[in-house]
Every structure is written in C-alpha cells, then in structure tokens.
Amino acid sequence: MTAAIDKATSKTVKATSSWSPLKNKLFRALWLATVASNIGTWMHDVGAGWMMTSLSSDPFMVAMVQAATSLPMFLFALPSGVLADIVDRRKYLLFAQIWMLATAAGLSALAFVGLVTPEILLGATFLLGVGAAMAAPPFQAIVPELVPKEDLASAVALNSLGINISRAIGPALAGLILSFAGPAVVFMLNALSVLGVVAVLYFWKTTPRVQRLPAEHFLPAVRAGLRYVHAAPVLRVVLIRAVAFFTFGSAAWSLLPLVARNELGLGAGGYGILLACIGVGAVTGAVLLPRLRKRFSTDALAIGATLLFAVSMLALAMLKNAVLLGIVLLFSGFAWIAMLSILNVGAQRSSAGWVKARALAVYLVVFFGAMAAGSAIWGQTAGKFGTPTALIIAAIGMVLSCATALRWKLDLTPDLNLAPSIHLQRETMSDEPAHDSGPVMINVEYRIAAENAEHFKKAIHAMRHVRRRGGALTWGIFEDIALPGRYVETFVVESWLEHLRQHDRFTENDKAIMLRAHSFHQGPDAPVVQHLIAPS
C-alpha cells in the first residue's frame, strides 16, 4: 500500500508446496465441489452460446451472451462484497448457490418444452450471472480463512487451476451432449452440478465472528470499501492492469462461437473441443506458473502473457484450419491463466481482512465490467466490419496495452502484512461519546528536529493512505509558523463509531508506517492526540 514500509517488517510469503492447501479437509472438499460446479457453469456457457447461434444470426446477439454473463458481476459484485463483510458468509454463499440451482433448473425446464427465445436465454444467463456475482466475493474472501498465510498464493493458484480443469472438461462435455441430447440436458446438468457446493456449505460449521462494535450498515460499508480501494496504491495498480488486459481479451471469448460456426463451419462438438483446448492450456499454465514465477519478474510474466494472448487472437482471426487453431488456443489458455493468477494474487494480498470481500468485489467489478463492455464493443465491431477484423483490432489494442507496465508496475509493489494490529489502547473516557456523535476531528502533534524535517514529511505523507483506508474523510499535515518543528497531523471521520472502527481496522502494515513517522518525534512521550467532536 505504500513503499514507505520499513524493510525489516517486509516478509516474503512462500508456500511450502503448490498442493499443500489440499491437505486441509474443508478446503479440499470445497475445491472439489467447486470444480464440479464450474464444469456445469462452463457447460451452460457453451450451451447458451451455441443455442443463441441457432436462435439468432446477429453477431451482436451472440456476443451479448458473454455480456449477459459478465454484466451482473459488474453491477452486483460490490453490493455482494459489502454483504459478505457484514453478514454470515456461509449462509450468504448458501443462498447464492440455491439461487443458481433454481435458475438453471428453470431454464432447463423451458428448454425441454421448447419455450426458450433469445430474450429468455439472455435473461436466464443474466440471472445465473447474478448468482455468480453474489457468490464470487465471499468465495474469494474465505480463502484466507481456510488456509494459513504461507499457503495463500498456492490456494489462489489451485482455485484458478480448478476453474481451468473445469474449463477443459466442461466445454468438451457440453459439445458432446449438445450433439446427442441438445441444450436442455446441458442446462439440467448445470443445475445438478451445484448440489455438491450446497452440501459442503450446509455441513460447514463456521466459527462465529466476534465483533466488539456494531455491524456496519450497508451504505456506510460501501463508502468504506471504496475509500479503502482509493487509498490502496497496490490494489489500484492491479485494477488498472486488469482493465488494460480484459477489455481487449474479451474479444476472444465473445466471438469464438462465431469463428467456430461461421468461419470454420464446426458443429457444437467442434466448438466444445476448441474451448477444451483453452482449458488444457490453462491447466498447463497453472501447473507451470510457480516455476515461471521463480525465473521471471511479475511484470515480465504479465507482458509475456499479454503478447501471447494477442498473437492467439490474430490466429483466431486468420487461421481457417481447426486443428492448427486448437493448437494455438492451448497457448491462449496458458496466457489467460497466467495473467488471471497474477492479478488475482495481487488483489488478494493487497486487501485487509476487514474489507477483503469488498476490495475483491471491486476487482471483480473491474474484471467483469471490462469483459462485458468489451464483449458489447467487439460484437458491434464484428457486426459492422466482420469477425476477423474485430479480432485483429482487439489484438493490436492488447499489444498497445503493454505500455501500462511502464507507469503501473506490479513488481514495485511491496509485500504487505495485513494482519490486524492493536496498535494503541482505545481512548478511555469518563464520558464516552455516543456512537453517532460527529463528525470527529483527530489531531496528532509531533515535535520534529530541523535536520529530520524532510524525512518526517515523507514518512507522514504515507500516513495519508493509512488514515484514508481506515475511514478518514479528509487528511492534512500542517506546521506551526510560530513554533517551527511543531507539526499537526489532522484528519476527520464521520462519527465516533467510525473512529473506533479505525482502531479495529489497523493492520501490521499500517503499524510499520506509523512507527516510521513516530520515529522522528522528539521527546520522551508519544505524540499528543486530540479528539474534537462537532457540537450537535
């Protein structure tokens, strides 16, 4: 979150093994159930995309299937992340799974009786996307609860591996079933695939979270989450790089059904095999990525993955041989999982526990927002200029997006210790203010020697991010013109309760930044702190 961390506090997180998270019984059960559920999801995506090519020949409508999948994540991931931070995550996840089970079963029933229209197909796909949007932030946020910190990167990689195992199996299976039984059976199997996750969540006995303070309300929690993201430089770098990659990368996913049917003349089985090739490449990438991380920097891997995916889009536009294209798509899957894993781990490691679901939800909003917007853009472009032209334009844009690495480098982000830290005893007052009292202004007075002034200014400005992440509405540092060397840090929060939350939100990373600033303070006592409350 800032480079001004004392290097002594920075620790490199190394997993003991790429497979060590699977030793955890709960993680293993949830991972296996999620793989099965994701197979069903990929089967639906293939079935929906292929069914739409039968219901409508308009490239825009075909591309809108991908948009209908991605748009709910853009619209609802942040509200879902807020709820996941303030309610019981297990119950919330269970509700999301039942929502998807009911939607998939309803679509299957309509398909069996021949009542599915393009509008119904898009609507059902959208509702399934809403369920995925509800589930994704809490699923991401519970990973640190299931495995120790040293296994976090491996757990994230295993989750990505599971997604891509399902990507390799689901499309091929869907293509086979579409050829012999039709989309209704595909949609029914998607509904059944959710049952394993429902069972694991139902029998999971979670430890209730002990909260010293009242639960946050919805809208203040949204504001707190957005303030955190705005004041988290590491997370902002991840978000910028995600927009640059996924906006152009969405062209491959949204236009692949058209390439398979119109450019290559393939049936449902051939389309499923092409998607399976992407999945096999992604699985290979997930297995090899830990070794590649040791040999190459994060930015070098990200740029390499971007260029490789751009080349695969050019091949998608130009190759007319399905076998050669399948080989190329192996590399596109490799590139996709590499970039996805890099960004996902970056988002996980830059999100503190108290706001993790919200911060990861913002990442998902950016990810799927870029995918939805890109799908609509490339669908319109393909409709006007042809599918190959749209893919070539997207590939050129992806190559140019590598320039973002010059300004926003993933390699320069520090390793963060975001474990909670009780850095100070909370103020004890004879007459405790009411929780809704406020706004509250907090002043911290420092005495700084002249020779340390410049170093102090650099250190104290790092505190701006700390205060903002914790909930400060404003922040400033001022020097007393009548008494040189006397500096006053001042920040405002909206209520006394919000100030109390700042104490609970303080992390070890924040503590290191604070101690750096305090190290320049002169005198035997700590800096003087004042609390001023606006009169009612």
TrEMBL record:
Q: How does it sit in the membrane?
A: Multi-pass membrane protein
Q: Which residues form the Major facilitator superfamily (MFS) profile domain?
A: 26-413
Where does the source fall among the domains of life?
Answer: Bacteria
Query: Which Pfam families is this protein grouped with?
Result: MFS_3
Q: Where does the chain cross the membrane?
A: 26-43, 63-86, 93-114, 120-143, 155-178, 184-204, 233-256, 268-289, 301-319, 325-347, 359-379, 385-406
Q: Which SUPFAM superfamilies match?
A: MFS general substrate transporter
Q: Which PROSITE patterns match?
A: MFS
Q: Where in the cell is it found?
A: Cell membrane
Q: Which UniProt keywords apply?
A: Cell membrane, Membrane, Transmembrane, Transmembrane helix, Transport
**PANTHER family, per database record:** INTEGRAL MEMBRANE EFFLUX PROTEIN-RELATED, STAPHYLOFERRIN A TRANSPORTER
Protein name, entry field: MFS transporter
